[in-house]
Design brief:
This protein has a six-stranded mixed beta sheet with strand order 5-6-7-3-8-9, sandwiched between helices. It has a five-stranded mixed beta sheet with strand order 11-17-16-13-14, with no helix packed on it. Residues 1-25, 43-61 and 269-275 have low confidence and may be disordered. The protein is an alpha/beta fold and 417 residues long. Helix content is 23%, strand content 31%. The structure holds adenosine-5'-diphosphate (ADP) and magnesium ion. Magnesium ion binds at residues 91-92, 197-198. One of its GO terms (molecular function) is ATP binding.
């Protein structure tokens, strides 16, 4: 697929702010990506050794898939850059490549300064450790000494509003609590460059506000920020510049006002994931998934086989939402293989408008070990017309006795001559 010509590099033309000196086109480049492409082989997504056995059969032919194609971008010190594009356009992949977590298939990345990133939910956290230990682990990975972390610890915990849970293992945290802790660490390590993926959308509104205030503060301090957002408002109000990705191509790099206009056009006309409306414009938005034993119960992320699991999908419906809404939920293994699926009755449900939760109760989890994510597809039950699709990065885990494989299967071993 050929890409439209690239827009010229950004020349931020906003009025001067307190960080204006750093935003002039002459500011030193702190991130430089040249000719960056990233190829994935289908089924290799985040394969863990356990699952690799399952999804990567010997000789299985994986399809090559380009998640990023020939991306050239330079970001100057002090810029606040929004990264936008439809689901699957490559935003998270680009952040990971810039953060040095993924190696590009070709091309080069150079970074000048300390990067702190808040990427996927729980990335960088060890579920078996307490929040306290994870703060130390994470901050030291970002280059802080124990003494420095001791000094910042209270402030991190207060920012995350997790004092009451800080000595609990983080596997018992809700997805919102994960994000709060991750963001709190990222902003306390005095980074020159902050990369933030969509995860902020997981937190509650008050916390999102707090994060945005922090981003604004960073901006006024002349730090460099690159964050993924679907919010056209945020792009227009907080960014000096916007990068728009479409199927792995950088189709625009420049002024927020122009970028948001382009986004509206492209998203409005593009067939996104099977003809669905892009998330931002959708009259029914799956805003969160949560996991608990019982509907409405306390959030829980770790389960034993045989336990009950409730997957709750929160929907935000506008007045234009279809009257009968059909939901399809895929429980995804880490090789992007759907492990099982659940759906509402074909006639759909009638949620009305506002915020509702749809609970899917699994009375007994199978002996299926690993960590699983959720993808939600919404359609209009009356017409079958797709409405939107959202893949959540929140994971729940099923633990069990150590086995070498994905499933535990009963068997007997015997010798025969
Ligand atoms: N590890 C991986 N293996 C295979 N495909 C992947 C992997 N990571 C991402 N992808 C695919 O690359 C594309 C871009 O993904 P991503 O960067 O997560 O998009 P976005 O963040 O814009 O939604 C998607 O089609 C996604 O399924
Ligand atoms: Mg993403």
């Amino acid at each position: 697929m050929s890409s439209p010509p690239l827009a010229p590099p950004a020349q931020p033309d906003r009025p001067a702010t307190s960080a204006s000196a750093a935003q002039s086109s002459g500011s030193p480049t702190v991130i430089r990506a040249a000719g960056v492409s990233k190829k994935f082989v289908a089924y290799s997504k985040r394969a863990t050794s356990l699952k690799e056995r399952f999804v990567r059969r010997e000789g299985a032919s994986g399809e090559d898939f380009w998640a990023l194609r020939d991306i050239d971008v330079q970001i100057g010190r002090g810029q606040t850059v929004g990264l936008a594009g439809a689901n699957g356009s490559g935003k998270s992949t680009l952040l990971k490549v810039l953060a040095g977590i993924l190696r590009p298939t070709s091309g080069e990345v150079a970074v000048n300064g300390r990067i702190a990133s808040l990427l996927e939910l729980g990335a960088g956290f060890n579920g078996e450790l307490s929040g306290r230990d994870n703060v130390y682990l994470n901050a030291s990975l970002l280059g802080l000494s124990k003494r420095e972390i001791d000094r910042l610890f209270d402030s991190i915990v207060d920012f995350a509003e997790l004092r009451h849970k800080i000595d609990d293992e983080v596997k018992h945290y809700s997805s919102g609590q994960y994000v709060r802790l991750g963001f709190a660490v990222a902003v306390h390590v005095d980074p020159d460059i902050l990369l933030v993926d969509e995860v902020l959308a997981v937190g509650d509104e008050a916390f999102q506000r707090k994060c945005l205030d922090k981003i604004a503060q960073f901006r006024s301090e002349g730090r460099t920020i690159l964050f993924v957002t679907h919010s056209l408002d945020l792009i227009e109000n907080m960014c000096d510049r916007v990068l728009v990705l479409e199927t792995g191509n950088l189709i625009y790099d420049g002024q927020p006002a122009v970028g948001t206009k382009l986004l509206r056009q492209r998203l409005g006309s593009l067939p996104v994931e099977g003809g669905a409306v892009p998330y931002d414009l959708s009259p029914v938005k799956p805003t969160a998934v949560t996991f608990s034993r019982d509907p409405g119960g306390a959030p829980q992320v770790q389960y034993d086989p045989g336990e009950q699991l409730t997957v709750s999908v929160e929907l935000d419906l506008t007045d234009h939402a279809p009257q009968h809404v059909y939901l399809h939920v895929d429980i995804m293994g880490q090789g992007e293989v759907p492990i099982w699926m659940m759906e509402t009755p074909p006639g759909g449900i009638s949620p009305g408008s506002g915020i509702v939760a749809v609970d899917f109760v699994v009375p007994r989890l199978p002996e299926l070990l690993g960590a699983f994510a959720v993808s939600v597809r919404v359609s209009d039950a009356a017409t079958g017309q797709p409405v939107t699709v959202r893949r959540f990065e929140d994971l729940f885990g099923v633990s069990g006795p150590q086995v070498a494989g994905l499933l535990r299967v009963d068997y007997q071993a015997g010798l025969r001559r």
